[in-house]
Specification:
By secondary structure, the chain is of the alpha+beta class. Helix content is 34%, strand content 11%.
């Protein structure tokens, strides 16, 4: 079976495909290190699943035979910690590049089609201004 010559593999002859062309699930924080609110339904699904799993897991741990408050606090802490690590890795994979940001004037180096100041998705924007932060931007 022959490969389709028009399809490109992730690693082309020019090198790996540009990772900045991917769709971001989370905004970058304006100041500090980390991720901001979700930008699309996939990001919101991750956030809602995280909250629901914390709530149901905390309730489920209370339904076990009582072993004392120390056991409960320890097991809930470990459970929440493991969920948080999993969500962090999803954010690293589907969010903007992690780096320290010093405020709104710190350009985010976002992919084409996103506001370079705040990371807002400008796909349907034709005004030339970011509706999130008011920065002037090129329309895609």
């Amino acid at each position: 079976m022959q490969k389709n010559p028009t399809r490109q593999s992730p690693n082309t002859a020019d090198g790996p495909r540009d990772v900045r062309s991917r769709k971001l699930w989370f905004h970058a924080k304006t100041a500090g290190w980390g991720f901001g609110p979700p930008t699309c339904w996939q990001g919101w699904t991750v956030l809602v699943a995280y909250v629901v799993l914390i709530a149901t897991g905390s309730v489920a741990l209370t339904m076990r035979p009582w072993r004392g408050i120390g056991w409960y606090i320890g097991s809930v802490s470990i459970y929440i910690g493991l969920l948080s690590v999993a969500v962090f890795f999803v954010c690293v994979a589907k969010g903007p590049r992690l780096r320290w940001r010093t405020g709104p004037r710190d350009a985010g180096n976002y992919p084409e089609g996103y506001c370079q100041q705040c990371g807002y998705d400008l796909t349907a924007n034709r005004s030339g201004t970011c509706p999130e932060c008011g920065a002037p931007c090129r329309t895609p």
